[in-house]
Specification:
Blueprint: H1 10-25, E1 31-33, H2 42-47, H3 52-76, E2 81-85, E3 94-95, H4 98-106, E4 110-114, H5 124-134, E5 140-144, E6 149-150, E7 162-163, E8 165-167, H6 168-173, H7 181-189, E9 194-198, H8 204-209, E10 216-219
Parallel strand pairs: 1-4, 2-3, 2-4, 5-9, 8-10
Antiparallel strand pairs: 6-7, 9-10
Helix pairs in contact: 1-3, 5-7
Length: about 220
């Protein structure tokens, strides 16, 4: 949503699409999971009184809107992208089928996984971890608004220190809030390395893909 308080900022989408294009041209196979916090979060809607399952379904639809926006930005750059949804919505995107997703990646297409895992009570963090494991990804990147994992919220605590590396169990035991616990456990149990970085830091995705010390690496 950029500097706005709501919705989609085309400039931000275009910048992210440009970085994805650079990665693809360098030879990476790329899959993306998007949240919907720029519209609403299921848990937030539930706190306002909407029934939780309904609220989560609304959040899933929000991720579809974001996914279509990213797909459009990538296609405007001349790339091939496919949105695959965990809920049936055939008029606007494909159903998620693991083998088909892997085939898209092999053909050089960017795959955008929408609608989380298709079930309420699970975050898009969990969806990202699950899809990364399913497609045998080499690295899961959590692109967020901070440049790594800190000992405390760096906005509220100026003495917070950034970790360069962490183990999965350290993240869970210290309640560091990198991703929700379900997502971290899924990474741990499947030995999926996780790197947390600032998505607004230009070139961060490329540096992470090249194995450089960008953000915080969570692994065994």
């Amino acid at each position: 949503m950029g500097e706005s308080s709501f919705g989609i900022d085309p400039k931000v989408i275009k910048r992210i699409a440009n970085e994805i294009q650079e990665l693809a041209e360098a030879g990476a196979e790329i899959a993306v999971v998007l949240g919907a916090g720029n519209f609403f979060r299921g848990s937030g809607l539930a706190a306002l009184g909407i029934e939780r399952v309904t609220a989560d379904h609304m959040g899933m639809l929000g991720t579809v809107m974001n996914s279509l926006a990213l797909q459009d930005a990538l296609e405007q750059l001349g790339m091939f992208a496919r949105v695959m949804s965990a809920i049936v919505i055939n008029e606007v995107c494909e159903d998620y089928i693991r083998r088909r997703a892997v085939r898209h990646l092999e053909k050089g297409r960017v795959v955008i996984f929408a609608a989380g895992i298709g079930n309420p009570f699970f975050t898009t963090d969990s969806a990202a971890s699950l899809r990364a494991v399913e497609i045998n990804a080499e690295l899961l990147i959590k692109a967020t608004k901070v440049d790594g994992v800190y000992s405390a919220d760096p906005v509220l605590d100026k003495t917070a220190t950034r970790y360069e590396t962490l183990k999965y169990d350290e993240v869970i035991e210290r309640k560091l809030g990198v991703m929700d616990t379900t997502a971290v456990v899924l990474c741990r149990d499947n030995n999926m390395p996780l790197r947390v970085l600032d998505m607004m830091n230009h070139g961060a995705l490329m540096r992470a893909a090249l194995g450089q010390n960008e953000g915080t690496l969570v692994s065994q």
